């Protein structure tokens, strides 16, 4: 089968198109014929080697974290899906590889594709949808009537998180450029701050939740917009000690995480707010709930561009440029 692989880590290392054997199917997995895959910033970060401490992939490996397609084979113990099912998924870490014609995915991370959207739109959902769900529902426990600040509202996570927060009944503030104001308002944003003109910390007060997707400096500044007892969930940095425990990291690695997050945790304590680092996980049951919201019209996919499979490197470069509004997708067929 055709696939795009990482030969060696590095920012200037393009993915290489190769012919590789079909993936080995484990007993609890389904084999998916890939119709579309989304390109995410994490793909660039993994290629660059920024996650080697957390995700020690051995090169060469196939990249790609989102998939929509059709089940073509099921493992001996897989019971949830049958051949011919249209599905979407975010594979487990260390079993990624959706930039390929076929991918083997643990059935617990798979869900039936929402019936009212295309394969390309479905491929755009899993990683950002699960990130927003796990941040706002699982970690922050966002409630009706609360206020949430979602950074970078026109990005992949932002466009989904705004819609999810509005569905949950929250008031939503976000940052974006003036050119994207209409987009984020159409998704439900109540307060829109042009980050090129205004500082969000001067505009926002007494928020319950912050979803941080920016750098550590922005993370620390964001804590100041929270009310006492508020909660900031960061999907970018820095990992904390609890995350190290969750992934069963070695004691030395946990101490690295403790050191990296020390100043952030100290500021959170001083302000009387809580801090959580989120590294999302594939979850089929959550994708089923997300599919229900999409089919009900509560959430719609936001896709900026669709690239042909052979242009995967160009799609990755476009994502890295930071210009994408919503998601970038590669189409297999």
UniProtKB/TrEMBL annotation:
Residue runs in coiled coils: none
Matches recorded under CDD domains: MDR_like_2
Alphabetized UniProt keyword annotations: Plasmid
Organism superkingdom: Bacteria
Domain Enoyl reductase (ER): 10-330
Molecular function terms, GO-annotated: oxidoreductase activity
Protein name stated in the entry: NADP-dependent oxidoreductase
A Pfam short name: ADH_zinc_N_2
InterPro entries, sorted: ADH-like_N, ER, GroES-like_sf, NAD(P)-bd_dom_sf, YIM1/Zinc_Alcohol_DH_Fams
């Amino acid at each position: 089968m055709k696939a795009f692989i990482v030969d060696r880590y590095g920012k200037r290392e393009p993915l290489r198109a190769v012919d590789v054997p079909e993936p080995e199917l484990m007993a609890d997995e389904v084999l998916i014929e890939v119709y579309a895959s989304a390109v995410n910033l994490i793909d660039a970060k993994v290629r660059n080697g920024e996650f080697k401490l957390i995700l020690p992939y051995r090169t060469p490996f196939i990249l790609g974290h989102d998939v929509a397609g059709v089940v073509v084979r099921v493992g001996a113990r897989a019971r949830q899906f049958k051949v011919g099912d249209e599905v979407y998924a975010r594979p487990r870490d260390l079993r990624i590889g959706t930039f390929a014609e076929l991918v083997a995915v643990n059935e617990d991370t798979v869900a039936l594709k929402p019936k009212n959207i295309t394969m390309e739109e479905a491929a755009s959902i899993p990683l950002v949808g699960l990130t927003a769900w796990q941040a706002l529902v699982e970690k922050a426990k966002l409630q009706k009537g609360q206020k949430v600040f979602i950074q970078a509202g026109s990005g992949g996570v932002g466009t989904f998180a705004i819609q999810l927060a509005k569905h949950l009944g929250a008031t939503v503030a976000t940052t974006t450029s003036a050119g994207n104001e209409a987009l984020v308002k159409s998704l439900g944003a109540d307060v829109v701050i042009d980050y090129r003109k205004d500082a969000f910390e001067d505009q926002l007060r007494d928020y319950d939740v912050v979803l941080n997707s920016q750098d550590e400096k922005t993370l620390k500044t964001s804590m100041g917009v929270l009310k006492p007892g508020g909660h900031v969930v960061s999907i970018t940095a820095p990992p904390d000690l609890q995350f190290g425990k969750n992934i069963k990291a070695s004691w030395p690695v946990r101490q690295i995480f403790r050191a990296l997050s020390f100043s952030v945790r100290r500021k959170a304590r001083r302000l009387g707010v809580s801090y959580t680092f989120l590294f999302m996980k594939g979850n089929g049951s959550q994708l089923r709930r997300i599919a229900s919201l999409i089919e009900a019209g509560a959430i719609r996919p936001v896709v900026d561009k669709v690239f042909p499979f052979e242009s995967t490197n160009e799609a990755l470069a476009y994502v890295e440029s930071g210009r994408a509004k919503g998601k970038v997708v590669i189409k297999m067929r």
